[in-house]
Amino acid sequence: MTRPKSKKVFVGMSGGVDSSVSAYLLQKQGYEVVGVHLKCWNKNGCDEEEARDARLVANQLGIPFYVFDMESEYKEKVVDYMIDSYRNGLTPNPDVMCNKEIKFGLFLDTALSMGADFVATGHYARLVKEGDKSFIYQAEDKNKDQSYFLWTLGQERLDKILFPLGDIQKDEVRKIAKKVKLHIADKKDSQGICFIGQVTLQEFLNEYLESKEGNVLNLEGAVIGTHEGAHLYTIGQRHGLGVALNTPHYVVDKDVKTNTVVLAEGNAQDLEKSEVSIRDFRLNEDLDLPSKVFARVRYRQDLHEAILDRFGENLVLKFNQPVRFVAPGQSAVFYNESGKLLGGGVIL
């Protein structure tokens, strides 16, 4: 009797513990696994070390290994997008754009053209089959859940994706890596924006956006200090304001046209929004509006109960209780009470 041919999966291997264990688990499940490191643009050349770690893991698992050069595409689709967003006074989400354009865009398309049935990554999110369709749910490990960054993925993409870590706690992932003696078992997780290197975000942006001194205002419009460019600030920012004040203050508003930044004390109602408009959205086909949803307007923030409805060409999200630190340019992501991802969009 002829053994059924194994499904082939290309695993995006960053060189970290999550993607390495993902490759191991899929191999153990009987998939024909191919390791792929995505060479993306970054400032400090750390990608060489990451690629070496990924290759060592692939060698240990005995799987083929490739490096896909996506530097120019990453620079255009992710880095330039981030810089342009800050230039225009928005707070971008490069992880969302990376998933849309690179990992589950260019990488997925390239893998399929080379004979893959699926691509997989080390994302903490669950894919659940309901009938003939796949839907994203929050990960079992709520502290590591990354479904927030995956809202742009439609059905045609989800049918070709695997998330092996969706039902596993992070601690268990490290235990698996140690059990099979992967050399990256104790490697620290990456933090912050991966491609800017060993500099602060402000230092990185200063290389691309011209500094321009402007006024820092309080809620009454009085000048309480100066700054080096409104584009360097984000709504809800507390640290690095460059103004000495007796009580904690946050950025409540900014205007790149007038080059002004407005601060408010931590208990100010101006930090709260009762509703927001959403552009460039994607919704599950079976979601009827208006609908009760649980919304997240920045990563790791609590979910907030709200009503989602259409408003012209956009959506409007009306919160049951006011929400703090809503930043234009960030993603608003919607779930049901079971943790099913219903869609998302960009905050206006």
Automatic annotation (TrEMBL):
GO terms for molecular function: ATP binding; tRNA binding; tRNA-uridine 2-sulfurtransferase activity. CDD domains: MnmA_TRMU-like (cd01998). GO terms for biological process: tRNA wobble position uridine thiolation. It is found in: Cytoplasm. Keywords: ATP-binding, Cytoplasm, Disulfide bond, Nucleotide-binding, RNA-binding, Transferase, tRNA processing, tRNA-binding. Residues 289-347 form the tRNA-specific 2-thiouridylase MnmA-like C-terminal domain. It catalyses: S-sulfanyl-L-cysteinyl-[protein] + uridine(34) in tRNA + AH2 + ATP = 2-thiouridine(34) in tRNA + L-cysteinyl-[protein] + A + AMP + diphosphate + H(+). It is an enzyme of class 2 (transferase). One of its GO terms (cellular component) is cytoplasm. InterPro entries: MnmA-like, MnmA-like_C, MnmA-like_central, MnmA-like_central_sf, Rossmann-like_a/b/a_fold. ATP binds at residues 12-19, 38, 122. Residues 144-146, 298-299 are annotated as: Interaction with tRNA. Residues 202-264 form the tRNA-specific 2-thiouridylase MnmA-like central domain. The keyword Nucleotide-binding applies. Its EC number is 2.8.1.13. Pfam families: tRNA_Me_trans, tRNA_Me_trans_C, tRNA_Me_trans_M. The record marks 123, 330 as: Interaction with tRNA. Belongs to the MnmA/TRMU family. Catalyzes the 2-thiolation of uridine at the wobble position (U34) of tRNA, leading to the formation of s(2)U34. HAMAP family: tRNA_thiouridyl_MnmA (MF_00144). NCBIfam families: PRK00143.1 (NF001138), trmU (TIGR00420). This is tRNA-specific 2-thiouridylase MnmA. The gene is mnmA.
